[in-house]
């Protein structure tokens, strides 16, 4: 499967924008939203090939969003984004394809996407 | 209509569920204030008052509503009396064990299965652990809640069971497909897995043996899951309520007692958490900006922003490490090889500053300590020493076994500890370094204390000296 469209869900607008701009430079079509309640709806509308999902959102937990997305579309990969590594071993996190620390170079996301293409 | 006595006066003051005017169950007094009325499918749920937290109150109302729904649509496996007794139990704050026993017992007595169990999810270890197990033995129902605890189902890989839990499905698997320990002692046929949820997600599973002789419809199985879930939810809420009541009493008593420091630590930790995200975007955008800036001075400013962000990130990490209440994991460690690794770790810095490291440690000395935490101590202390030595110096580490423990002495030929540190050793946030957090020594102190050991620091003729004593009491 070739990844073209990426949906970013992060309640921090600046962090979302950072990833959005970064991935756009690599030629991806990117959409970012800051309200996790809109995630499922946006997922339907935008039909992404990949979702970058923040875990720590005060309004709605990223792991809850993950459950909702995976229930409707288990095959679209979801990468969890987090500032801390405490969720790494967690039952719901098991259903995300990757787990990315925000402090790491965003290049890692592009590298991971490359791997999907193979 | 059935009246229930002995209601919990804090958690639930008044609860009434009725269908078309015929009360299914009624608890409490009419005089209690009615907060709100909810109507679900012809059933009236008249309020639950007295919950400290609206969200949780709705959780319970929601749970009851779902049970009603299942009663209406599903096979009636439990009669009203059983359900009333059930609600009576949760309202009266019966322990979760009793509630589980009650629910599972009715699975067997209503002929849904011959064997059944509840397993709870350990979210971090990715395991399901047995809590209770019941089986029919002739006329009796045998109950077991001790040995079943050693029975575990492994979830570290996605599989049929994990899928059932994640996607909220009821599945049937053969007992041999259950990955884990000791399962075959309890289930030796096909097994139905029913996930149990609360508002945060999956909390466990109910297992039912399926010997193929009993008809089971989905709604009945769901009802079981809802009952267990409601029981767990309710007992955790009442437990919280009890704890917060105790907390209030405690704080009233010791309102001035020095919880300030712990409190400060908590606040600091949550502030540190909040700072992390902005740091990611500041550092990230500064890095991106490099590509749009060609001016050399501009580029050097961006480098400063980036290096300062990295420094802030380090500070935040230190604070988080310090404020974490950590558990130490002791193992038998060769201090000699641990120190050798560290010398390797600092190789470059030591070379640049032409610093010699002398390690005097018996190669066969084994300490019973947490190696990762001790590595952190040595890293912090050696870093301090390297920073305090201008150029050309020496760091000496002496390790010896004494009568009731191990002594470690670290000396350097640097500038020695500043007076502020000697006066207030190990106090967090005391620092004289421009880039320091003042947490390095505090972290060392915390780790040594967690090993029941002691740490001292002082200056001697040539520089700084730190002495650590680890008692051998913890050794096995």
From TrEMBL, chain A:
GO BP terms: phosphorelay signal transduction system
SUPFAM superfamilies according to UniProt: CheY-like (SSF52172)
Pfam family, one: Response_reg
Protein's UniProt keywords contain Ion transport: no
InterPro entries in alphabetical order: Bact_response_regulator, CheY-like_superfamily, Sig_transdc_resp-reg_receiver
Highest taxon in the source lineage: Bacteria
Domain annotation Response regulatory: ranges: 5-117
Keywords: Phosphoprotein
Modified residues (4-aspartylphosphate): 54
Name this protein carries in UniProt: Response regulator
Species for this entry: Calditerrivibrio nitroreducens
Automatic annotation (TrEMBL), chain B:
Swiss-Prot/TrEMBL catalytic activity: ATP + protein L-histidine = ADP + protein N-phospho-L-histidine
Keywords: ATP-binding, Kinase, Nucleotide-binding, Phosphoprotein, Transferase, Two-component regulatory system
InterPro entries (alphabetical): HATPase_C_sf, HATPase_dom, His_kinase_dom, HisK_dim/P_dom, HisK_dim/P_sf, Sig_transdc_His_kin-like_C
GO molecular function term, any single one: ATP binding
Record lineage: Bacteria, Pseudomonadati, Deferribacterota, Deferribacteres, Deferribacterales
Annotated protein name in UniProt: histidine kinase
Record domain Histidine kinase: where: 270-474
EC nos: 2.7.13.3
PROSITE patterns: HIS_KIN
Keyword flag NADP: no
CDD domains in alphabetical order: HisKA
